[in-house]
Structure formats: structure tokens, C-alpha cells
Write a structure and sequence with these properties.
The complex is a heterodimer of chains A (about 110) and B (about 120). Helix content of chain A is about 0%, strand content about 55%. Chain A has strands spanning about 5, 10-15, 20-25, 35-40, 45-50, 55-60, 60-65, 70-75, 85-95, 100, 105-110. Chain B has about 120 residues and is mainly beta. Helix content of chain B is about 0%, strand content about 50%. Chain B is built from no helices and 11 strands. Chain B has strands spanning about 5, 10-15, 20-25, 30-40, 45-50, 55-60, 65-75, 75-80, 90-95, 105-110, 110-115. In chain B, the strands form 2 sheets. In chain B, strands 2, 4, 5, 6, 9, 10 and 11 form a 7-stranded mixed sheet that branches. A 4-stranded antiparallel sheet of chain B has the order 1-3-8-7, with no helix packed on it. Chain B is globular, with a radius of gyration of 13 Å. In chain B, about 35% of the residues are buried. Classes of the chains: A mainly beta (about 110), B mainly beta (about 120).
Chain lengths: ~110, ~120
């Protein structure tokens, strides 16, 4: 079954801390694992993405770690800021043109 | 960067009526657009794939006659919710990608909040 399991469902992190969100997939996925950020009442926006031939990708404060053998990937947000408070979705492409999304993580950064 | 625009951003309609949502790619041509539905505090669920010049492909469990999709041009796809009922109230989001960019260019619209009363 084409599922992407995401955890935690919600996360509260102090300003300046590290936010970590994890995702796991069950079946063999193909060449694209993106993370999306969504603010209330808005569509998702691509944050960062990784391909399975790379174990880590960093863009500014955002890092994706990818473990192909474990079929897991995670998003790390360094120096978390109140403006990072949003819902984050991981996703994966399973060999066709359709993205399958994780269940989402509501991140709250507190002062 | 690529921009996908949706209209309207919010709509309230009476039960039994139909409502049309537009999705436009503003600075690129899109032969394929995707329509998602998102219930409060839930993930995005793909409803259908809109194909320019041909019939849309619907996901399992999505009623074709209820959610009519028309992709009449390379920059416009429309989703019409027919005979809407309160359970159709949801956040509808479209997405598209510029030619050649595949998933790396996936851009979402800002969504349409549909409320059926």
C-alpha cells in the first residue's frame, strides 16, 4: 500500500531549538521526497526535497536526512523561529506522477 | 518562479447548488494539473488528475459526476462541485508543474475554502 507515515502529529519547540519531523514509507519509492510547509488557509509550498541517491541535503536552516535502507527520511529545522510555526507535510513519489502525502505535523515555536 | 492561481479563495453555497473553482497556471503551460481535497487538520488527498484536451483521471472513491473537471486550455483547469452538500465542505487545492520540471517544479495554488450551507 502506498502510504507515507509521518510523526509526530504535533510538535512544540522553543525558539532557537531544533525541530525534527520524521517520515517512513512502506513500499519502494522512486526519485523524489519533498517536504512542504503550509500556513493556515494557504496551499502547501515546497520547502526542500531530496533524491534517494543522496543521504542528506541542507538548505539554510532546513536539512533533510534520508535513509534508503530503512525507508525513512526526516526534516530538521535548526534555530527554529516563530515564523516556522506551520503544518509540515512530507511526501513521496511512487513511480508515477502522483505525490502521496504524509499526515502532517503541526509545528509550534514558542518564545 | 512558477505561479498557480486559484479562484475564488472562499465560497459559500447553498446545499444542492453547484460551484466552480478555477485553477490557472500564470506563467507556464500545464498539460496536467492535479486537484486535491483537504479536510481540517488532515492531509491532502488527491482527487483527480486533469489532462488538457482529454478526460480527467479520478482517484478511487471520487465521484466523477459530482466533481466535474474541465481542462480546456493549457493554463486553465476547472473543478465544478455539482449538487453540493455540507459534507463537500472542504479546502480544495490545485497544483501543476512547468514542462520538464516534473515534481521539482510542483506548485500549489492558494486553495479554495468551500462551505456548503
Amino acid at each position: 500500500q502506498q502510504q507515507v507515515k509521518q510523526s509526530p502529529q504535533s510538535l512544540i519547540v522553543q525558539k532557537g531549538g531544533i525541530s525534527i519531523i520524521n517520515c517512513a514509507y512502506e513500499n519502494t519509492a522512486f526519485d523524489y521526497f519533498p517536504w512542504y510547509q503550509q500556513f493556515p488557509g494557504k496551499g502547501p509550498a515546497l520547502l526542500i526535497a531530496i533524491r534517494p541517491d543522496v543521504s542528506e541535503k541542507k538548505e539554510g536552516r532546513f536539512t533533510i536526512s534520508f535513509n534508503k535502507s530503512a525507508k525513512q527520511f526526516s526534516l530538521h529545522i535548526m534555530d527554529s523561529q516563530p515564523g516556522d510555526s506551520a503544518t509540515y507535510f512530507c511526501a513521496a513519489n511512487f513511480g508515477n506522477e502522483k505525490l502521496t502525502f504524509g499526515t502532517g505535523t503541526r509545528l509550534t515555536i514558542i518564545p | 518562479g512558477a505561479v498557480v492561481s486559484q479562484h475564488p479563495s472562499r465560497v459559500i453555497c447553498k446545499s444542492g447548488t453547484s460551484v466552480k473553482i478555477e485553477c490557472r497556471s500564470l506563467d507556464f503551460q500545464a498539460t496536467t494539473m492535479f486537484w486535491y481535497r483537504q479536510f481540517p487538520k488532515q492531509s491532502l488527498m488527491l482527487m483527480a488528475t486533469s489532462n488538457e484536451g482529454s478526460k480527467a483521471t479520478y482517484e478511487q472513491g471520487v465521484e466523477k459526476d459530482k466533481f466535474l473537471i474541465n481542462h480546456a486550455s493549457l493554463t486553465l483547469s476547472t473543478l465544478t462541485v455539482t449538487s453540493a452538500h455540507p459534507e463537500d465542505s472542504s479546502f480544495y487545492i490545485c497544483s501543476a508543474s512547468p514542462p520538464g520540471q516534473g515534481f521539482y517544479g510542483y506548485t500549489f495554488g492558494s486553495g479554495t475554502r468551500l462551505t456548503v450551507v
